[in-house]
Amino acid sequence: MNNEKNQTNYQMKQNAIEILMNNKALFILLVLVVFASVLSPKFLLPRNIINILKQVAAATIMGMGYSLILGSGHMDLSVGYLLGMLGIIAAKLDTQTSLPFAVVVLLVILIGALGGMANAFFVGVFSLPAFVVTLAMGQIFKGINYVVSNTSAISGLCASFTYIGQGNIGIVPVPVLLSVAVTLIISITVYRTAFGRHLLAVGSNSDAARASGLNVSNIRYKVYCLMGICVAVAALVLTGRAASAQPQSGQGMEMDAIAAVVIGGTPLGGGHCKPEGTFFGCLIVGLINNILNLMSVNSNWQLVAKGAIILFAIILDAQSEKILERQRLKGLK
């Protein structure tokens, strides 16, 4: 009887640890919400909550694409500069051409997809590490950004453009609706399609995936293409929200994306992908920024805090995997 009771207790403990490790982003978010509500009674006001959701909308959309990148076992350090470049291009097309705004949107999405596929091309054709390729491509995007903008902001955007970043449908902001829609699309892609299963197989073991008949190169192109599309949508949202295109927009956002995705449960090593976790991870990063602002923390120290968040995310990812592995081994004994 005692053995059965001990076994039951152990199993319950194991299940609790596994649930905690697999949903760590949600638990961290709940803790931060409680902390922030104690810190400031204004935190739970609907206006503040909506502002946080609007602030993280662009990062969430980018984070969804980054979830696919990490899930497939790759890396992309160019996304921040790509976002800035696409914002400038979109503003230029909107203010200095007679193209309908719908055409501008399609062109920006196409350029974003091509930018992502360029990364995949150099990684695949020349067998180069994604880390190095995307770092170099980021500088190219940054240079194009500054050449096109002449390092000056571009304003005077049309009403349709600003509506993407500032408009509402009912009481719900358009950026929030877009971030939720992209989250749902990426979640369905990962969990309900053959492509989702294939990209995770490539992320887990590309050689085994290739040996099983998967076209690894084709999957890589598709993943980076989707990343570029997500960055393009994020660029439209961020530029519309600011009502102007800033050459510095997007710089450093890749760090926020990595932190959010890893905190959300998508490991750096690939093979797993949790888009819903990324959604919570983006909220965590945005919530921390909000808490730091409520505490009137100097902006320079906020950069230090962001770096600490990324380091914490990487450590948490590594330790949670070790804990889960130990629990699995104990369960087999």
How would you explain this protein's 3D organization?
- Helix content is 78%, strand content 1%.
- It has 333 residues and is an all-alpha fold.
- The protein has a domain at 56-250.
- A two-stranded antiparallel ribbon has the order 1-2.
- The chain is globular.
- The mean pLDDT is 89.
Distance between the termini: 20 Å
- Rg for CA atoms: 21 Å
Strand content: under 5%
Low-confidence stretches: none
Strand order of the largest sheet: 1-2
Shape descriptor reads globular
Could you estimate the helical fraction of the residues in percent? over 70%
- Mean pLDDT over the full residue set: 89
Q: Please give the number of β-strands.
A: 2
Q: How many strands, what sense, and barrel or not for the largest sheet?
A: 2 strands, antiparallel
Order of helices and strands: HHHHHHHHEEHHHHHHH
List the helices and strands and how they pair.
Blueprint: H1 2-22, H2 24-39, H3 46-55, H4 57-71, H5 79-96, H6 101-125, H7 130-149, H8 159-166, E1 168-169, E2 172-173, H9 174-192, H10 194-204, H11 206-211, H12 216-242, H13 253-263, H14 275-294, H15 299-332
Antiparallel strand pairs: 1-2
Primary descriptors:
15 helices, globular, mainly alpha, two-stranded antiparallel sheet, 333 residues, 2 strands
Brief description of this entry?
The protein has 333 residues and is mainly α.
